[in-house]
Design goal:
It is built from six helices and two strands. It has 92 residues and is mainly alpha-helical. It has two domains: 33 residues, no CATH class; 55 residues, no CATH class.
């Protein structure tokens, strides 16, 4: 993953596996590792309306089986995004 980030000129690796990407090892490449909840929370803060639109679009496209916004938020929270979900709920 680090090689792909370097090759792709990325500045962030988004991963649940932070222990395998210590800051000291990433610093020479100007790359940081972030937990998905931190990454998504930052996106929501930077572009709240775009994130709400993306959430609504995702819910609209779920047809087999269909899901409500609340059901999708429960799934996102179970996937490790509790802070992101809390922000989205406040915005809805």
């Amino acid at each position: 993953m680090l090689a792909a980030a370097i090759h792709g000129d990325a500045n962030t690796i988004v991963t649940l596996n932070l222990k395998d990407f210590p800051a000291l090892r990433l610093r020479p490449f100007n790359i940081i590792a972030e937990h998905p909840d931190v990454f998504v929370t930052n996106l929501i803060k930077l572009a709240p309306e775009n994130c709400l639109t993306a959430l609504r679009n995702q819910v609209f496209r779920l047809r087999n089986p269909p899901k409500t916004i609340d059901e999708v938020l429960v799934i996102l929270e179970r996937c490790g995004l509790p802070h992101s979900v809390a922000l989205l709920k406040k915005m809805l």
